[in-house]
Sequence to fold (445 residues):
Amino acid sequence: MHGDWVPTAPFGWDPVWVATLLLIATYAVIMSEKINRAIAALIGAGLMIMVGILNQEAAVRGIDFNTIALLTGMMLIVSITRRCGVFQFVAVWSAKKVQANPAGILIMLQIVTAMFSALLDNVTTVLLVVPVTLVITEELKVKPWPFLVALIFASNIGGTSTLIGDPPNILIGSATGLTFNDFVFNLAPIIVVIQLVTVGIFHLMWGRRLHAAPENRARVMAFSERDAITDWRLLKQSLGVLAAVIVAFVLAHPLRLEPGTIAMLGAAVLMLLYTFGKDAETQSHEVHHTFAEVEWITIFFFVGLFVVVHGVEQAGLLKMMAEKLVAATGGDLAVTALAILWVSAILSAVVDNIPFVATMIPLIKSMAPSFGGPEGLMPLWWALSLGACLGGNGTLVGASANLTVAGLAERAGHPVRFIPYMKVAFGLMLVSIAISHVYLWARYL
Fold:
């Protein structure tokens, strides 16, 4: 246990039970979606301290500031980058490359979304790609539903391949010291395979039946992608900073830098370039505007969640669960890894994969003695990442990107409903997990 704080509980109750009840109550409220998830997590965190499971110092120790800095920094970089129109440019360019053929656009947008999700993060990517997709489908007079489902899948699959692509990977990387390169080396090969299989399945399901009238296709072909770029100077600056940030992620280990530092410094440099030479008032306005675009709900959701999970960890519940899990799998690494893969996938489809992974990380860490130290846990981390990130595709509440797409689509008058989405998505998600199962078994076990 960290520090000198010993968990206590009121009325002489067992701290393990009190912490567990608080965790379950917090998750239940988050899943009900009746109360905003940031409020639910922060109240859960406050109660962990109020009842004595943690004190404030122990609670602050539980917050992973590297994750918070990485998320905030990348949100700031993207907030400025999107103003130059580069993402709209890519979407229009890719639609025209396939002569505005809806089946071709379905394939191109999935590839573009998967690549953006690997380099930015999947929530940001769908915020940028979905509005352009809706404009294109409207002009072609085709149903947006297949495109929206395909974009959700592509964003979660692409995001799995890197440290920064999906919040669960950010959590895993930060907690274990795994680098950007580790994620690319271990996960990108299988992610390429899964993405290609998914593109093929969507083409067979929907793509080959998508047709648009010649006059509608001509309208899309008349879009000018160059008109999408509103600020060429900003385009050069933001692409320069983004490239530098990604190079720094790759070299983070020799540079002895954490991803959070790199993202924050990149954001500060880009804000400096963007506001340089403007008068004080304009500068202040631009910086306000940029910070306002950060998804503070997500950031504070993480802060509260870290404290809640840390409380359960301090109380000793996760250590007990880890011992039970190792006992159930007979201490067999292969059985444990594949159990983590499938359980993570099914549960991440039911609960948001971020709180699930936040709970699993300390649980897996406490298995280290059973598998010969931290090195022996590597297959378990890759199993957790693949299970949680890909499992998030199974239902609408499985990942933040899914809810973001649903929100954007609803605003545009094309609601994505829970049950119709799940009917299509759950089986497809299981296909991607089956492919991951074979990969893990062949490569690590």
Remarks:
- The mean pLDDT is 91.
- Residues 10-62+86-228+295-444 form one domain.
- The chain has one domain: 10-62+86-228+295-444.
- DSSP finds 23 helices and no strands in the chain.
